[in-house]
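Human: I'm a chemist; would you kindly supply sequence and structure tokens for a protein?

Assistant:
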Amino acid sequence: MFWLKKVLSQLVMPIPFSIMLLIIAAILWRTQRVTLLRFGRVALVIAILALVLTSQSQVSYFLADSLESQYQVNHQPITGRCVVMVLGSGNLELSGHTAVQQLSSTALARLSEGIRQYGLGQHCTLVVSGWSGGNQPTAHATMMAQAAQELGIPKASILVFNQPKDTIEEAYALKSMIGYKPFRLVTSATHMPRSMRIFTSLGMQPQAAPSDFIASRGYWWRLNADQLLTSQRAIHEYVGILWLQIKGLPTGNTVGLMNNLE
């Protein structure tokens, strides 16, 4: 189900969606049937419009800002028991590079904000999460933990969840550790609305600390890959929210999800 969800979600992303329509248009363009030929032309027009619109700054800004504006940057000091949860993203495996250098830009932005939130409390625990993706020897959470240590966080203050594959599994893993106690939740600003919905649906008390804001205005006539990526990330979140509405949140056992950094 996990991989099926990933594959299906990719089909509605701007680039795969447009390529699929272009392939359909190319196949139908050679047909002699008028109805199919018209359908091919429609597919071609939709593919071009999808790429143009999602690469346009006003469209990408609207898609991303609608998500990012729901939660503001969190500057509030943390009182009482301090737990900062940083959701996983991605990294490379590069020999000879530091852990910080191997993090993706998204992961580095999340970790940086997590460390800032860590500094807003006392005697905090920094929780990092993320599996290996099935294609790397090192779990993403382990890489995040190593990067946090490089940036000055004591090893003893870091807790690693290296098995959760998505936000739902991350939520269950943290719940098994802290139950219903308040904690600071750090993730990308576009991802925050969906994350908050997942954590609160389990009865937990997350305090949003968004990072990695990507919504930006630009010249309306300029089309570029950065805006396309912004649109894609926003669309991914809307699809994720829709998936939650359709399927609902699963229940399950999280025994074995947590593993401290050795």
Summary: Strands lie at 83-86, 125-129, 158-161, 182-188, 205-211. The longest helix spans residues 225-247.
